[in-house]
Amino acid sequence: MLSRLFTLLLTISCIRGYSQNEKSILYEVSGNGLEQSSYLMGIVNFLPADQFKVPAAVKEAMSKCEVFVTKTDNDKKTQKKFTEAVKIPNNGWINSYLTDDELNQLRLLMLLDLEVKEHAYHDFYSRLQPIILVTTTAALHLKDNIVYTEQVLHDVAHQNKLKTESLGTIQEEIEAFKKFPIEDQVEALKYTVTNFYEHINDYQNMVNAYVKDQDLEFVKNETFKATNESQAFKTVYYDSRALEWLPKIEKLMRDKPTFIALGAPYLMGNVSLIQLLRTKGFDVKPVSVKF
Q1: How far is residue 253's CA from residue 38's CA, in Å, rounded to a whole number?
Q2: What is the C-alpha to C-alpha distance for residues 120 and 126, in angstroms, rounded to an integer?
Q3: Secondary structure (DSSP) of 200-241
Q4: 10 Å Cβ neighbour count for 251?
């Protein structure tokens, strides 16, 4: 098993230059015995609503498919289970990880800048794990001007009567998240608290890279930056899962034309689905997309 994995990773490293100049959020997968094309789309979890509408090319690709795939189920029960799982263990508080000054900065940021109610901060937000708070601050900053990309695509899939599938379970998602080192989480939160508007500027730069430039490599790098560039988290949460999902994705595509929507880091990099599929002999080409 280890020798097979080494050979696969070595092959990937040899073809890494293949996609460096490609810029698209959508890729067509064909060849290697596929009767019909399938599609891979890189997404960002949430975007400003006034900057994102589902492009015509994405809708057209989905209309050609029969199955819509995301990493986990996207229903209220799943969302509730994940929300409970990402709270600080043992009914803990964020106070345990920050100095008094940092804690005061966080509280002022949440209550004054982001207009969170005192009881909501005390009962909910202050109990979230540090990296979840990092993401939450950017979402709260958008207020009502927010769209959750995966949900919007789910709606399009429903309109096209696509069957929905998931690559993993919510429990697998939770277990992967648990392996995010707390030290990296805390450092990411400290940067956000002390440099909040730089953090928001980083987020907006990522949005621009996604919508205007369709540069998933930039999106991936900004995503890692927001996690304090934790290599341990990258390996467990992205690389290992891409390798694990590859056989299921191949089976889905061979069975029926499939549209797969996943976060940009799963598509870009040395251990990524685009490179893994190419290594397996599939033709993976960027699709021209206009917002």
Answers
A1: 6
A2: 9
A3: HHHHHHHHHIIIII--HHHHHHHHHHTTTT-HHHIIIIIIHH
A4: 10
State the pairing for strand pair 283-286/46-48: unpaired
Pairing between strand 67-70 and 163-166?
A: parallel
Question: pLDDT tens-digit profile of 115-138?
Answer: 999 999 999 999 999 999 999 999
What's the one-letter identity of residue 279?
Answer: T
pLDDT at position 17 over 90:
no
Predicted local distance difference test score (pLDDT) of residue 199: 93
0.85 exceeded by pTM: yes
- Residue 211, both tokens: 């919508």
Please name the residues in contact with 3: beta carbons below 8 A apart, sequence gap of 6 or more. none
User: 285: which strand partners?
Assistant: 28
* One-letter amino acid for residue 145 of the chain: N
Measured CA distances, 53 to 35, 61, 187 (Å): 30, 15, 34
